[in-house]
Amino acid sequence: MKNHKKLPVWKQKLGQLVENRWFTSSVIILILINAIVVGLETYPNLYSEYKSAFWTADRILLWIFTVEIALRLLAAPSLKHFFTNSWNWFDFIIVAAGHVFVGAHFVTVLRILRVLRVFRAISVVPSLRRLVDALLMTIPALGNIMLLMSIIFYIFAVIGTMLFQQVSPEYFGNLQLSLLTLFQVVTLESWASEVMRPIFEILPWSWLYFVSFVLVGTFVVFNLFIGVIVNNVEKAESAEEEVKDTHNEVMELRKEVQELKHLIKNEVINK
Amino acid sequence: MKNHKKLPVWKQKLGQLVENRWFTSSVIILILINAIVVGLETYPNLYSEYKSAFWTADRILLWIFTVEIALRLLAAPSLKHFFTNSWNWFDFIIVAAGHVFVGAHFVTVLRILRVLRVFRAISVVPSLRRLVDALLMTIPALGNIMLLMSIIFYIFAVIGTMLFQQVSPEYFGNLQLSLLTLFQVVTLESWASEVMRPIFEILPWSWLYFVSFVLVGTFVVFNLFIGVIVNNVEKAESAEEEVKDTHNEVMELRKEVQELKHLIKNEVINK
Amino acid sequence: MKNHKKLPVWKQKLGQLVENRWFTSSVIILILINAIVVGLETYPNLYSEYKSAFWTADRILLWIFTVEIALRLLAAPSLKHFFTNSWNWFDFIIVAAGHVFVGAHFVTVLRILRVLRVFRAISVVPSLRRLVDALLMTIPALGNIMLLMSIIFYIFAVIGTMLFQQVSPEYFGNLQLSLLTLFQVVTLESWASEVMRPIFEILPWSWLYFVSFVLVGTFVVFNLFIGVIVNNVEKAESAEEEVKDTHNEVMELRKEVQELKHLIKNEVINK
Amino acid sequence: MKNHKKLPVWKQKLGQLVENRWFTSSVIILILINAIVVGLETYPNLYSEYKSAFWTADRILLWIFTVEIALRLLAAPSLKHFFTNSWNWFDFIIVAAGHVFVGAHFVTVLRILRVLRVFRAISVVPSLRRLVDALLMTIPALGNIMLLMSIIFYIFAVIGTMLFQQVSPEYFGNLQLSLLTLFQVVTLESWASEVMRPIFEILPWSWLYFVSFVLVGTFVVFNLFIGVIVNNVEKAESAEEEVKDTHNEVMELRKEVQELKHLIKNEVINK
């Protein structure tokens, strides 16, 4: 965006239009209208009565968004440049999918796509985009702890299925069900009253399985959270490097003062 | 409050009265009495037997509070000055509403107003007022993350209503119900046992919706909390700016020492 | 304990005995035995069979603890000195109460007292005593926020009782019940599924009450927690004052260098 | 591992093989296959149909792991050196147990052992091993607070059993059940709706027991968590010592400047 000078004039003009405050505001308003439309569609009476109106509104909004993204794409220095930004990918796919699935029979898929267009509010408002970028940035640092979590989940799920398959088919009927149940247990939701107690009545040693999973699971989840906190606090405290700089600064200063002292001692006094 | 000198004498005297320890203590005691009265009113037997006594007590308390606020208002340099403080607005509205609704048929509204007068304890006790000010101050900094939360809530609510309207009318019957249900889910209260499991039995893919919402929702709520923590820690660590100052200080000092060195070298030695 | 020299010889010897490692270890073992005895007593079969044995064991333990505390008291420089330590008060009351209630008919009170004696493990093990002291120390700093919490609880309880008394007598039947229910709601336990939903079906606006209480309540509780964290982090970071000192140090140093510069300029050059 | 030079040549070669990237990758793949095999075994239809295939796969995997660990053991400078690493103990026991129990009738024990082999993924991937080491390292620092927690749990469990044995045999029937119930209460799971409310209806004072346990329990658990956070933050902030160094540095520098000043004053001016 910084090397506009080398772009053809029409690209520059388009770039100015696309980055204009009014353009962005208009897009935000259209996204809001889109949000209201998909909200109203959820009321069955309204939907059946004004079905064609909703359809038309959706078509118009989709085409406006298509034109908007086409303009953005044309304003970009190159296709490659446009698609290096993952938010542009997101915008492009959300809108393109609206065209691809238009004739499809999967009405629900199409309707969900319309709702997902509301997510574009994030990609259009710069402060929200930065916030989400910051939130997503904390995820890769947690890769290892999430891998550990997966291993623990998998092992407990396999053991849970083996042990409680017959006793509690609803919660531990198969590996998928066990994984879902363990996710419920790690959020501490009804882990005792609904999941453990009925099994506990038949298998009195089963508390060992649940208590150990709750302890291990919450401990790891908690450390995952601490990871995020410490990450954030560290970022806020990168000023500390500055402090380290100060240290070096003072060290060098001291050397200079010592040199100065020797200088005076040797040159001024012994003169 | 600092420019009392230019105020007329009666305003100064009134200001001294209003800021007097005994005045404040008396108001706190009256608020306590108000609290006890509204507490006792909740017992139906007591209320029906001493209805008129309660009514009288309420009238007396309301008029005392009215006089108190009138005194505060008169003691203020000007009307504008009085209403720049939002706590004064709060006090004024709470008491004024007591007069406005007095003849109304909405007995419940009137009774709730009486209870809300207990909140005046916060506006009267300075340390509590400062605490609440500090708590409220953390909210605007969270504007963006709350906006993000709203977008996520809205999108999930619309999708939830679309998908589960027929299956679970109690939880996802319409957009409002879905929003309430999602609020319940984000507090992790019975999200699996009561909300998801019954839907999961009919629509086996529905776990995707709930697990993704729990993950996204708790992640964002958690980051909202971290925002508050980091905010608070930062405030407690504003001393770090001081550290930065130190750095600049040392940098300047070093320059001076270097100048000094050149001075000695050129003037003393080469002399 | 530092001014042993001025104490009579027998007090010094007693002090040495009481602070001896073996003495403390023996007391810890006796507390452990006490813990096991009260644990075994909870089994009805065991208790009815060996009732007199349990009674005898309890009598012996009580008298040993009495002797122990008497020794500690005698070893202390003075009665006043002994009772300035709140842990000594705790020990004294726990053991004295065992004698006071011995003939009483309140068997349950007596048995609970026996169990509470296990808490003496905290007062005897120094590291535990320090930990509990540290935990209790964080409470007074939270005075204001707990006062605010009380006001919020009280107001919501009164309003809740007023509004939902008829609809949900189990949860909001009277002021005490409402306070208990709000405590349950603030822990987020079944606040929606058990408490709100049944009321919500009759009074559709009731979600406002619950959602606002959950938001306000968890926000304040969360800030109460943050207070504790920041308190702890601050303690761990009191080294920062050191940093501030550095700043002042550098400032003074700079002044000295400037003086030095003027000195050289005026005296050496202009000479 | 650093003093390979003094090892016999075959040990060196073996050490190179064992630490080779391909070797480690192969082991990770075999662990993944092991994970998939134990996962598939949980499906009863699959298991009964391919029972012998599963048995063969398990035998082959066990022997490969045995060879792998034997190679690691031979590559180590000595038996003692190998077993000083607790991860090697873990690997050894997991695999050895597979051989020990092979002919046993405890099919479930054997199958659980096979699942636990998946935990070897942690001991093989260095970054995971370091993460788990770091997590486990935080536990000893929490020794005291966990001891305190145990004392509180035990005392509340004994009192709970004494008081509610008859009223709620399901939750407080004996000491073990009470301990399990208290663990459930401390996770705040259905503590009110399922555990307290039924008892509360019969014994109206029972709320005191539960509310005090919830307050004390969550307070201590919360402080346990804070301990971990502060521990982590401290580690991340050990740079602060550096700051302290700066202070000393500046102090010494100041002394030198003062010496310099006196030097100039006495020698240059008074000359």
Main attributes of the structure:
homotetramer; Four Helix Bundle (Hemerythrin (Met), subunit A); flat; 271 residues; Helix Hairpins; 15 helices
Q: What is the CA-atom radius of gyration of chain A, in angstroms?
A: 30 Å
The amount of beta strand of chain A, in percent, is under 5%
Q: What is the H/E string of chain A?
A: HHHHHHHHHHHHHHH
Task: Label the structural class of chain A.
Answer: mainly alpha
CATH architecture of the largest domain in chain A: Up-down Bundle
Plain-language structure description:
The structure is a homotetramer of 271-residue chains. With 271 residues, the first copy, chain A, is mainly alpha-helical. The first copy, chain A, folds into two domains: 2-124, Voltage-gated potassium channels. Chain C (Four Helix Bundle (Hemerythrin (Met), subunit A)), CATH 1.20.120; 130-235, Helix Hairpins. Chain A has 15 helices and no strands. Chain A has helices at residues 9-18, 21-41, 44-49, 51-75, 79-84, 86-100, 107-116, 120-124, 126-137, 143-164, 169-172, 175-186, 191-202, 207-236, 239-269. In chain A, helix 2 (21-41) packs antiparallel against helix 4. The interface between A and B is large, with 56 and 53 residues.
Would you spell out the secondary-structure blueprint of this structure?
The structure is a homotetramer of 271-residue chains.
Chain A: H1 9-18, H2 21-41, H3 44-49, H4 51-75, H5 79-84, H6 86-100, H7 107-116, H8 120-124, H9 126-137, H10 143-164, H11 169-172, H12 175-186, H13 191-202, H14 207-236, H15 239-269
Helix pairs in contact in A: 1-4, 2-4, 4-6, 10-12, 10-14
